[in-house]
Amino acid sequence: MAKLILSMDGLVLKEIPLTKERMSIGRKANNDIQIDNLAISGEHAAVVTILNDSFLEDLNSTNGTLVNGQPAKKHFLKNGDVIELGKYKIKYVAEQAPQGETTDFEKTMVLRPNTLKPAPAAPEPSAVAPDGQRSPENARAANQPPPAPVAVGVIQILNGANAGRELELTKTLTTLGKPGVQVAVIARRPHGYFITHVEGAKFPVLNGQVTDAQAHQLTDHTIIEIAGIKMEFFLKG
Known about the structure:
Elements: E1 3-8, E2 11-17, E3 22-26, E4 33-34, E5 45-50, E6 53-58, E7 66-67, E8 70-71, E9 74-76, E10 82-85, E11 88-93, H1 104-108, E12 110-111, H2 136-143, E13 152-157, E14 166-168, E15 173-178, E16 182-189, E17 192-199, E18 205-206, E19 209-210, E20 216-218, E21 222-226, E22 229-236
Parallel strand pairs: 3-4
Antiparallel strand pairs: 1-2, 1-11, 3-5, 5-6, 6-9, 7-8, 7-10, 10-11, 12-15, 13-14, 13-22, 15-16, 16-17, 17-20, 18-19, 18-21, 21-22
């Protein structure tokens, strides 16, 4: 589990495990991490964690937020990143993947994608009763058509060294891009897939149109451009 280490002038004040999806930071007492200092806004920033990914978001604070010495409004956190709020520092510490588990492609183009296909569905209960006869309920169920499969989103790389490679978007959240250059996330929700800008001066381009900071739903065969890489999103039944 990832955690935050709060310190001031080199003295560690506390360690906060990221047990909630959203951890607020600020001067007010209702924050998850309260820092009682006038340089800190009442609601200064928040750290959002989804599965193994965490993001820092500055909540329009008066004095701003720094990450590794650079001003940040929204930042994809990496292990060892240091968040600065006035005289206070918060170090982000994440669990490390076993050495050799991440490929070069995953480190530079797609961060921690899940390329595994979903596990096969459990077999349907038998429509045969214990005495060998079909019960009326099971007989009716056996005659029903199987439910329509849920479409899984897939990204196919269209250019560069990894052209032709496909990634199934089976995770709740998949991070795309190059840290420090341009980063976006694709969220898998019950009603579809949505892409959101996270880091970088440039926003993702969808079908030739530059997006904004809002989440945008992806439709079948959407062309996405991020950090110089062009890819196609499509649904696989």
